[in-house]
Write a structure and sequence with these properties.
The protein is mainly beta. About 10% of the residues lie in helices and about 45% in strands. The strands form 24 sheets. Strands 63, 66, 67, 70, 71, 73, 75 and 76 form an 8-stranded mixed sheet that branches. Strands 72, 74, 77, 78, 80, 83 and 84 form a 7-stranded mixed sheet that branches. Helix 5 packs parallel to helix 7 and helix 7 packs antiparallel against helix 10. It is elongated. It is a single-pass type I membrane protein.
């Protein structure tokens, strides 16, 4: 089809050709997507391959097209992969999710040459493992032994449905019922399993397990639960109480123990029904509960009943044990009541009381060591069955008894109990002296400084209490009073203020003897103004008006000076006369006039009163509230940069007073309204926010803001930066060979930065790229002295730092004059000249621009209106092929020189091609070694002209110093690379190769050159004795088995020669047959040959391939000969005998009429007929004069074989003879080509 599409054909076949070409352009699916199942999170690939894709390939998901780009923007996990040149548009889905579980199809849109196609639907099944199962039951509520419970397990959100298995203590629970419900999302299922379990006390602590499994899991997921079964405990016991009688103040340690139960028993102690303790410990290992009660016995515990109770959650009633105790106790308290303090000469009245005790106690009084007997006693029943005692005592005090101990003693001689209560007796009398330690009154002190004043008092009982007063008012900030040997002291720390100036301080000393003594002092204090007041004459302040402020400084000592401050500025006010003020100070006044601006808004005007004596001042401020219209900040940006598709925020730094400002945004003189474009949003500070900004949003924006005081406006530029898009300024670019090529690509990008362009050669071979430059938004690649290697596609990549970079392809077409292929295989075409065959003369040129061909035959321009000549032109890129088909080739008319001229606008090239008779092949050339091993050698060569027939190749080789050769037939026959195997290691071999066809064989390659190669060493160190070269073995005689083999081979060769002579003589006799019979035989033979041969019409063409793949499976022919292979002996002897069939002699030169092309033209000069075939040279025998007589050659060869005979490595006598007879049997006269039968038409 490709061959026909590029040729010039007759109008009659155009409809058929159009049908074929139309069919060829129809796009079709090579591979359609199939249903696919993947696990969630895996990567899924739906395959789609399109043959001859001419439309746009897209994927549809559930009927929704994903887009034509291979990266599938908007679907980050989706992409089209594969080689688009092979029509691969596979859909790859990474990290498959439930949302991907749907149907897909591959679609190709229609094009000019093909209709659209849609693949079959393919379902993507995304399988999802279940989430961790859970028990759908109240797991916090324990079970009770003997009751039945329903256990439900749920395995949620699986696809497909999970299977659930329940286990108790490792044993599977049978009889479970399963059902399913919908999951949290569509297509997901929740699996449920229920089973009934009877709780046993032995189940306590055992484990329930739930296993969930579906096809996406390698092992099930599980959840477990420990069973908690409740049962009742045993009755408690009390340990640690041996006797019922206990002394008071003793601590009893009792333990209550209860065994068994789940949960373990709760224990609590009660005394006479009141709870003492509700704490206990549990011993899970011993399965018991125990509670320790530490009870300190008191008199109140006499005849008390102790009880311990145990229970748990499933006990029907508490279990208890109790004990009653008897307590022996002494008086809990001995109380001395009455006042022990009195003024000298007064009388004391005191009482001593004991609480209940058993037995009763006695009471007596002591003052120092003196017993007081002026007492009275009373006895009554007390608490807890004991007795109480009350004793009263009277006594008159004196100054000498001050500080003596007064004691009340309670005792019992029978129990040896004794307890006392003592107090110290206090007798009061007044202090003797008071004074103040303070600074002198005539020394001035600074306000804010700290002054320490101390008041002292001596004598008195108790010691005096000191109190400070200021101008008759008690001072609360005095320090704590301190004592010393003779008296007391109290310090007053004063931080001086204006009120302390000439104030009177007094210290009073008193005690419980109820007599007061006082001391006095005064202070002089310097202070700054005690107050600052500032006021404005206007209530409303506006920009441009004058403001008058008045500042009043309060009392100060000495007088202060007023100054004004506004920000960094000091202003001068107007001063008034000073006046006397409080605290003995002076007050001053000042006023200030100020012209208001918007910059004054929210600023503070400070009024400061400063004392130079104190180097200190006081200040106050007035905050300005200036009304003004909107103003824009000096920091307001006039240009904002943003990336396309991002969110742009155009800040608006506007201030105004009042702050209620309304702003209007204009873009390209149109008001921006949020309702018209959802992308516009206004922030609280009137800044404009544009979402999904595009390059169309770029440009100037005007903002107009107003409030009650006026309006103002400003312009702001939005610079939208975006990734580049690039295109070629000219594509393709044509340039002549050797000139300078300029490849230019233009980018649409913002910003345009230096160095944003880079160039890449897209060809396989490396070429010198040239010079890269940039001019604004254009990238330039300049290639000097362009060669043909520079032709191809170049990629211009633009990257301004904003992803993604863009690229464009520019094709550079290098124009050069035509260059014809002129190898040996292009200069000859062979065909039978009997009028029945067709020859193709191929002329191939490479050139740009379009190459046109013209043909001459023997120097005369060819006329393609002649039905026997047909020209077909095929063009593939820079290659142009013109093929002239010669129908019914005639040796008389067509054996000539055909001249092909290829030309374009840059020049022309010419090639002479000989159409000749079929003949033996030309020798191969460029015979060389490809590789060598220890037992093999790989060889390669370039085939020569095949003589118009199918040719094959044969390799001849021998080891060094050997006079006999081994032969290998190359298989397949057309191979030009072949590996010879079975060689000996470290051995030198001589190799040659020649070509053969049905007519004969060529000379050996490269003028019978010999290629000498030495094999490598065997990789193994062990040497095989069978690999030893027979020629290197010593000894004067041949072994017996070699002699037998040689004899058999010589006999076989004699038989071959005899057979060759027989068939040669028979063939020679048949040349006397009539011409008509010969022609009939020729036609029959040719038909058979055409039917049996694998050659196509191209076999009579001059277009060949010079290399093919190596095929080591070649047919090997092993013969021993001195000069050639065995079958060539037959050929040579036969050729000598019938040499005029193979090689037409130069003596025979038929006188032929000129071809029609020469006689038809009026302007063509007629040339002598004898000169028509001088350029062809096919009728001159160059080999015959040098050849000896056939019999001589045969005998010479035979004698040479006898003298140079060597042992063949693989003798196969009879078998080899049969192969030779089957392949190289002499042909009949009718089987030979027409021109080899001894006659010419």
């Amino acid at each position: 089809m490709d061959f026909l599409s590029a040729r010039i054909v007759s109008p009659a076949v155009l409809p058929f050709l159009c049908f074929i070409l139309g069919t060829r352009a129809q796009q079709a699916f090579r591979t359609e997507p199939k249903n696919l199942t993947v696990r969630m999170g895996a990567t899924a690939v739906l395959r789609c391959e399109v043959l001859r894709a001419s439309g746009t390939v897209q994927w549809a998901k559930d009927g929704f097209l994903l887009g034509p780009e291979r990266s599938l923007p908007g679907f980050p996990r989706y992409s089209m992969i594969g080689n688009p040149e092979r029509g691969q548009y596979h859909l790859q889905i990474e990290d498959a999710q439930l949302e991907d579980d749907t149907q897909y199809e591959c679609q190709v849109t229609s094009s000019e040459s093909s209709s659209g196609i849609i693949s079959r639907l393919a379902w993507l099944d995304v399988r999802i493992p279940p989430s961790k199962p859970y028990f759908d039951m109240d797991m916090s509520t324990p079970w009770e032994a003997g009751k039945k419970y329903t256990v439900t397990c749920v395995a949620p959100d699986a696809k497909p449905l999970a299977e659930i298995t329940l286990y108790k203590d490792g044993v599977e629970l049978t009889g479970a019922e399963s059902f399913s419900t919908s999951g949290s999302k569509d297509k997901l299922l929740n699996a449920h399993a229920e089973v009934t379990v009877t709780a046993l006390s032995s189940d306590n602590g055992r484990e329930l397990a739930c296993h969930a499994m579906n096809p996406t899991l390698l092992k099930p997921v599980e959840t477990t639960m420990a069973m908690n079964v409740y049962f009742a405990p045993q009755p408690p016991v009390i340990l640690g109480l041996e006797r019922n009688e206990v002394k008071a103040e003793r601590t009893l340690v009792l333990e209550c123990v209860s065994y068994g139960g789940n949960p373990l028993a709760t224990l609590h102690w009660t005394k006479n029904g009141e709870v003492l303790s509700m704490t206990w410990e549990e011993d899970v290992v011993a399965q018991k509960s125990s509670s320790i009660l530490k009870l300190k016995i008191t008199p109140a515990d006499n005849q008390a009943e102790l009880c311990c109770e145990s229970s748990n959650l499933v006990s029907r009633s508490p279990l208890s044990v109790s004990r009653k105790i008897t307590v022996l106790f002494e008086p809990a308290e001995l109380t001395l009541s009455g006042s022990l303090t009195a003024i000298e000469g007064q009388e004391l009245n005191l009482s001593c009381y004991t609480t209940s005790s058993n037995p009763p106690v006695d009471i007596r009084w002591w003052l120092g060591y003196k017993e007081l007997n002026n007492t009275s006693v009373a006895m009554e029943e007390g608490d807890n069955g004991g007795m109480t005692i009350m004793s009263n005592m009277t006594h008159r005090v004196s100054r000498e008894e001050h500080g003596m101990k007064l004691t009340c003693e309670a005792f019992n001689k029978g129990t040896h109990f004794s307890k006392t209560q003592s107090e110290e007796l206090s007798v009061y009398y007044p202090p003797q002296k008071v004074w103040i330690n303070a600074p002198p009154e005539d020394v001035p002190l600074r306000s804010g400084s700290t002054v320490h004043m101390v008041c002292f008092a001596t004598g008195g009982n108790p010691k005096a209490t000191l109190a400070w007063f200021k101008d008759g008012t008690a001072v609360t900030g005095a320090l704590q009073q301190t004592s010393f040997d003779m008296g007391v002291a109290r310090e007053l720390v004063v931080v001086l203020t204006a009120s302390d100036n000439m104030a009177s301080y007094r210290c009073d000393a008193t005690n419980k003897a109820k007599k007061t003594i006082s001391a006095y002092t005064k202070l002089r204090v310097y202070f700054t103004p005690v107050s600052m007041k500032i006021a404005a004459q206007q209530e409303v302040l506006r920009q441009g008006e004058a403001l008058i402020l008045e500042c009043q400084a309060g009392s100060s000592s000495p007088m202060a000076n007023i100054s004004w401050i506004l920000g960094p500025l000091r202003l001068q006010g107007v001063e008034e006369e000073p006046r006397d003020a409080e605290f003995g100070g002076i007050s001053v006044h000042s006023s200030l006039s100020l012209n208001l601006t918007s910059q004054h808004h929210n600023q503070k005007v400070i009024c400061q009163a400063y004392s130079h004596v104190l180097a200190e001042g006081t200040n106050t401020y007035y905050k300005l509230n200036v009304l003004y219209p909107p103003e824009f900040s000096p920091d307001q940006p006039t240009e904002v940069q943003v990336l396309e598709d991002d969110m742009a925020v155009i800040p608006l730094l506007v201030s105004a007073n009042p702050e209620e400002v309304s702003c209007i945004w204009l873009h390209r003189r149109e008001k921006l309204v949020k309702e018209e474009d959802y992308r516009y949003h206004w922030l609280d500070d009137h800044s404009l926010e544009i979402r999904n900004v595009s390059r169309n949003d770029a440009g100037g924006y005007a903002v107009k803001c107003e409030n009650d005081e006026g309006a103002n406006e400003i312009s702001i530029t939005l610079d939208v930066q975006y990734a580049p898009s690039v295109k070629a300024e000219k594509e393709p670019v044509f340039v002549n060979l050797g000139e300078t090529a300029d490849l230019i690509c233009v980018a649409d990008a913002n910003p345009i930065i230096a160095g944003m362009f880079s160039w890449k050669w897209l060809g396989e071979e490396e070429v010198e790229m040239g010079e890269e430059t940039q001019e604004d938004e254009s990238g330039l690649l300049t290639i000097y002295n362009v060669t043909r290697a520079h032709a191809g596609s170049y990629e211009c990549l633009a990257n301004n730092g904003i992803e993604p970079p863009a690229s464009a392809h520019i094709r550079l077409v290098v124009q050069f004059k035509p260059e014809l292929r002129k190898g040996p295989q292009w200069r000859k075409v062979a065909s039978r000249g009997d009028g029945t065959s067709t020859a193709e003369i191929v002329c191939q040129a490479e050139g740009v621009p379009r190459v046109d061909f013209s043909w001459e035959k023997s120097g005369v321009l060819m006329d393609f209106e002649n039905p026997r000549y047909e020209e077909m032109i095929m063009r593939e890129g820079s290659f142009h092929t013109s093929t002239v088909r010669v129908v019914n080739v005639s040796a008389v008319l067509d054996y000539a020189v055909f001249s092909c001229t290829a030309r374009n606008s840059l020049g022309e090239d010419k090639l002479d091609i000989q159409l000749i008779s079929t003949n033996h092949p030309d020798p191969p050339s460029s015979f060389r070694q490809v590789s060598v091993g220890h037992d093999s050698v790989t060889l390669e060569w370039i085939p020569g002209f095949n003589g118009g027939l199918q040719q094959r190749f044969r390799i001849r080789y021998c080891w060094d110093q050997s006079v006999s050769f081994l032969y290998v037939d190359v298989f397949p026959p057309s191979e030009t690379t072949f590996t010879v195997t079975g060689l000996q290691p470290v051995t030198t071999y001589n190799f040659s190769v020649n070509a053969l066809n049905a007519i004969g064989e060529s000379e050996y390659a490269d003028n019978n050159a010999v290629l000498t190669i030495t094999t490598k060493e065997r990789p193994d160190s062990d040497e095989d004795p069978s690999d030893i070269d027979p020629a290197s073995q010593g000894g004067s005689g041949l072994p017996v088995y070699l002699t037998v083999v040689l004899t058999a081979v010589l006999g076989g060769l004699l038989v071959f020669n005899l057979i060759g002579c027989f068939f040669g003589l028979r063939w020679k006799k048949r040349q006397g047959q009539t011409a008509a019979g010969s022609r009939d035989s020729v036609l029959d033979g040719k038909k058979k040959e055409d039917e049996g041969s694998s050659q196509s019409t191209a076999g009579n063409s001059n277009k060949y391939e010079s290399r093919e793949m190596i095929n080591a499976a070649a047919q090997r022919t092993l013969l021993v000969d001195s000069g050639s292979e065995a079958d060539s002996n037959v050929y040579e002897s036969y050729a000598e005998e019938c040499s005029h069939y193979y090689y037409p002699t130069g003596v025979y030169t038929p006188h032929l009429s000129p071809p029609p092309e020469e006689t038809r033209g009026l302007d063509v000069i007629r040339r002598p007929v004898d000169h028509l075939y001088e350029d062809v040279g096919m009728y001159q025998d160059t080999a015959a004069p040098s050849r000896p007589a056939p019999s001589v050659v045969f005998e010479h060869k035979l004698s040479q074989q006898r003298n140079e005979w060597r042992l063949p490595t693989r003798p196969r006598g009879a078998e080899r003879t049969r192969q030779f007879m089957a392949v190289h049997q002499p042909q009949r006269d009718s089987d030979l080509p027409f021109e080899l039968r001894g006659e010419l038409v």
